[in-house]
TrEMBL record:
It comes from Salvia splendens. It comes from the Eukaryota. Residues 1-20 form the signal peptide. Keywords: Signal. The keyword Signal applies. This is Wall-associated receptor kinase.
Length: 360
């Protein structure tokens, strides 16, 4: 029996099977050490994108090339505008950096300390999606402050010297929800009971929620005195940052951009504070806006119409399990596509795309 054609639409000049695509600007390094550097990021200003959002006043703030990476010793990437080591950059609109942390000095007076990162004048924000403000130890009360000194959160942990819990759920460690997308903030702390053993009274810092528990494993000194943890080797915490290439619109129809709604409903708040990951669970998805290639295309949409999303023969990849029967690739054809509602909380646009034909 011969079944009717099932047509998946893709518009392309060429249909190719891609085994390895470069995500960096042509002629530029693809990696720094083991970290992939996808455009708009790049090693140096010549390989990274220029700020194109007039509202950021990038030139006046001397952040004209906010995506520039410094590849220190040809092995360690640093985001130039904040001088912090980069752990990972995702095309889903996020990156992970190493935020410097230091212990709090014991004090029975309220002490206000700025978090050592400022993203003002840049296309970067700190998402509450993936980060929380953490207080290690139980000898301090901590108030999280906005840049206007308004209290927006805070916590105090319960002391239990016999506890082995490292979930940071309120015993010897607590965490509080952060504002939605700050670019800088500060915190105020006061010691409840100063330690007789040390001049330090624990730590307070924003960090990736998934990373927090690993801190106890990576730095054993934090477990020796859970009431007042200290480890001389504990100097960095992983922080997730959202990024946008705002103002860049040189996309082809094979690109789709996803934007979180701007409404202030309860559903919006629930959606905002719910972490999102890609299909593999390994990449954080931006809480604001990011662009990606449509199904049937691969690559980096931020490289523009020519080098961006490339048409691929996804049916030739048996691991995708999206095609059956005998696959026929038709080059250069344009077909109409039936729009599928896949929007959930994001907004999508549907364009014609095409070129793949499946027969059975």
């Amino acid at each position: 029996m011969r079944f009717p054609f099932i047509t998946v639409s893709v518009f392309s000049w060429l249909s190719l099977t891609i085994t390895a695509l470069s995500l960096s600007k042509p002629g530029c390094p693809e990696k720094c050490g083991n970290v992939i550097i996808p455009y708009p990021f790049g090693v140096g200003s010549n390989c990274s994108a220029k700020c194109v959002d007039d509202t950021l006043n990038c030139e006046k703030s001397q952040k004209e090339y906010p995506y520039a990476i410094i590849c220190q010793n040809s092995s360690t990437p640093f985001l130039s505008i904040i001088k912090m080591e980069v752990v990972k950059i995702s095309l889903y609109g996020t990156l992970i950096v190493k935020l410097p942390v230091s212990p709090m000095n014991c004090s029975d007076m309220q002490t206000t300390v700025p978090v050592p990162i400022s993203l003002r004048g840049s296309p970067f924000t700190i998402p509450a999606h993936y980060n929380s403000f953490v207080v290690l130890g139980c000898e301090n009360s901590v108030w999280l402050r906005s840049d206007t000194m308004q209290t927006v959160g805070g916590c105090t942990a319960i002391c239990d010297a016999n506890s082995t819990d490292t979930s940071c759920s309120g015993v010897n460690c607590c965490q509080t929800t952060m504002p939605e997308r700050p670019q800088e903030f500060q915190y105020t702390y006061r010691s409840i009971e100063a330690s007789n053993k040390s001049r330090y009274c624990g730590y307070a810092f924003p960090a990736d929620k998934k990373w927090i528990q690993s801190a106890y494993t990576l730095h054993s000194g934090l477990n020796q005195d859970p009431l007042n943890p200290y480890d001389a080797g504990f100097r960095f915490a992983q922080l997730v940052i959202d990024w946008e290439h705002v103002g860049f619109e040189d996309f082809h129809d094979n690109t789709i951009c996803k934007v979180l709604p701007q409404g202030r409903t309860d559903q919006y708040i629930d959606d905002y504070y719910t972490p999102r990951y890609d299909a593999t669970g390994n990449n954080y998805v931006s809480s604001t806006r990011y662009c990606s290639c449509r199904d049937g295309f691969e690559g980096n949409p931020y490289l523009g119409r020519e080098e961006g999303c490339i048409d691929v023969n996804e049916c030739s990849n048996s691991t995708l399990n999206i095609c059956g029967g005998n696959f026929q690739q038709e080059e250069g054809e344009e077909h109409n596509i039936v729009e599928v509602d896949e929007s959930d909380e994001f907004s999508f646009t549907s364009e014609s795309r095409g070129g793949d034909t499946l027969t059975q």
